Amino acid sequence: MADQNVPPPRRSPDDRWTGPQHPTSDGYRDLHRPAQPWAPPTRSDHTHRAPADHRAPADHRAPQPGPPRRGPQWVGPAGLPPARGTGPAGGAGLPDLDDDDDDRPRTGRRRALAALGGTAAVVAGGAALAMSPQLRELFGGDPAGDATATAVTDGSAARPSGQQPSQVRTYTEQNESYMGSRAGEALKRNAPTAGQTYSGPAAAAANTRVTVKTVLAKDPVRHLASRATFGATPKVLADIKRMGIDAWIRWQLDPDKIAPTRAELKLAELPSLKMTPTQLREQRDQLNERGVQPEREVVDATIARQIWSDRQLFEVMVDFWNDFLHVAADFDGGEAHRGSFDRDVVRRYALANYPDMLVAANRHPALLLYLNQNQSSKDAVNENLARENLELYSVGVDGGYTESDVRQAALLQTGRGVNNGEYVFRGDRHYTGKVKILGFTHANSSADPAQAEKVIDAYLRYIALHPSTARYVAQSLATRFVSDTPPKTLVDRLAKSYTTHKGAVKPLLTTLFSSSEFWASVGQKVRRPMEYLVATYRVLGVSPEPSPGYDHGDRKRTPYGEGLRQIHEKLRQLGQYPMGQPTPDGYPDVYLAWTSAGTMVNGWNEAGDILGGNRRMFSYVKPEQLAKAAPTAGAYLDALALRLVHQKLTAKEKALILGIAGVTATDRVDATFNGAITAIARALLASPQHHLR
Fold first, then answer.
1. Phi, psi at 572, each rounded to 5°
2. Domain-wise residue ranges, the chain
3. ∠ CA(514), CA(260), CA(352), 5° rounding?
4. Residue 442: its H or E element
5. Which of 111, 213, 142 is nearest to 652 (CA)?
6. Is the pTM of this model over 0.85?
7. What pLDDT shows up at residue 153?
8. How far apart are the C-alpha atoms of 401 and 127, rounded to whole Å?
């Protein structure tokens, strides 16, 4: 694997771990560079300046060794360059979709996959947004001859932020920029625009009529399972039907009462996962000798929980907060501290209270090192953390703060830092004097740790409960769970709930699930690369136990650990993995940020590998055992569709897939679909029904 030849970490002057070159933020302000005293800002209008920071990598590729890239561009609705796509595989050298060892005729295979999978991205809008030109070319189509070609690629329409994707800087702002394209406007026209709150989720589901155009079944159980988990499975669907919608949501909102699965218990095989930062520092030489990389094991464990945990809504919210309050796993200090940040900040408060999460994060070495707060003092102030607390982690770039607020906040937060891997407050480095930040005022007259810490925490709670923060969290949550263009009525309702319940997460989610906008949004979200792959593992029933006869050899990791690391590396290739964004803005959460023929095909091929049981450190359900065989091809396909995409297909879709096997609906087939079972299952996993959530 790519990580096996990584040199061991070395000691840095401030006793932090440093290892191989970690990705930096591509020009992000002073990140990973010594703090410098302030120079006067060039202008005070922070909201509309376009610096070279906070820009996501254009192709979302996994970090590569070597010097950091400079000047990356977001790939937005303007489309993909001809030479390569936005995803890691690009548009050139795409893997072959055919199985070389199968001589059976493939009637219309490429065109069938194109027709099914290529439209997955755009069925969310129900408009005529078909494949990207690159994908049509791949399958022999004529990009110039398709009237829908410009729908995905034309970015000429005005954007709400008034900026191009290469200039926008924040999580919400980048989403709005993508959705300001012509393709985004088409999606908006098909999205729910208004709604109301009911007495509970089940009442909302029963009283909501789905009017949007979508290929997905308008089944509330399937819809809930698709949005509140990382992918519906037969077990999840059965649990919701047996328990009822309200009881199932209550159960998911109390994850401590949900028993750990076998796969979660096997996480004990990841040696660094439960270790404290102090233990990691003290035992780093021994861990290095064993090839243990703590910052990667926390990602491995997150992937395992997404696939196999029964605490699915909790894991969805962990992923949400990892984008909202983002600290990358791969940073100088992540080896010792990212696991603790995951455990003691994100997971501790994911379903609890956001103000508590923000306060805890600002006392955690991971965030303080990631954003250079350790280098900030009253004599040389570093503003990174103070700025991100406002711009990304609370009120948002349009939340009403000014450059003066950033400077005042940076002064107030001086004194906080890290020493010997532990959080410290250094009174001699703390600025004293009156501060005023977004309406928060305090004399801040004492450098005594007990007093100064109270002032900083009071400020953090103030911005965490600011009306702009309430709306920012509401907008982000609605984008994650409902639509790339969430209705204003829902955002307003969620913001009110956030304020009323002082940032508590469970009432916020109850409001969300009790709103008709949620239940009306069937098919309005497209899975991002990580979500697609995790959902594929879930629906195929992959087990965390090794396949019979698997020979692990002399690898340092257990079979389970090795399998998780391989999934992790595949997700890096696809461009999205837990805690993977190098900059503090987190991954974009709208489909148009992820349009890539290469990534889509790479995901399909990975689905084929899973069907073939290629990672033998896991166990698999054989394709011919996924569903009960039927004597005719049409009936068998119906059973497979219900098993893999949880609904039957239209006659046209059935004909396309049956064409892959060269049979008709009335032809007789055996349990292997006359040898085509893997190809049939793979086509279902390339369908819009599996790409949408």
1. -60, -40
2. 625-691
3. 45
4. strand 440-442
5. 111
6. no
7. 28
8. 39
